[in-house]
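Quick note —
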Amino acid sequence: MRRYLAIGLDSYLCLLAVGLLVRPYLDTPGAGRTAGLLIGLALALSFANQVLLTAAVRASAGKLIMGVRVIGLPDAGRPAFRRLVRRWLYGLLWLPFRPWRGLRAHVTGRAPDRPEGAGAGGPCTLTDGSPHEDLAGLRQIRRRDLLCYRAAVAAWTG
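Predicted structure written out below.
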């Protein structure tokens, strides 16, 4: 539930910031320019929040508020920048179309589409099928659990 609340907070904060930045341009002529500015700012803020902030502090703004961290597998270390970019693109390009693909699969009776490389040992295969893991090989966990894990590893290695 924390992950879904974090996603909602990230979306709300991004839209709020973009709305405040675009507001002065709404009364000017040229709706196309304003729409382009709106989309460009939304993408830039989304990238900064989901990739740059997560690379720096292991969490986006919403995840920081909800106490969730993003870790790389299998060592529970800092996520790689390339994986963060892949995760951001996956969220932008594939996730919004999942409801449509699921509905289409239900109507036609075919299995829903999967992203290229997913499943059967491909590069996007989940290591343990956990719902807290995504296709980029990153895992979202509570901050408290990460601290307990680090303490256990430190005690074990001595």
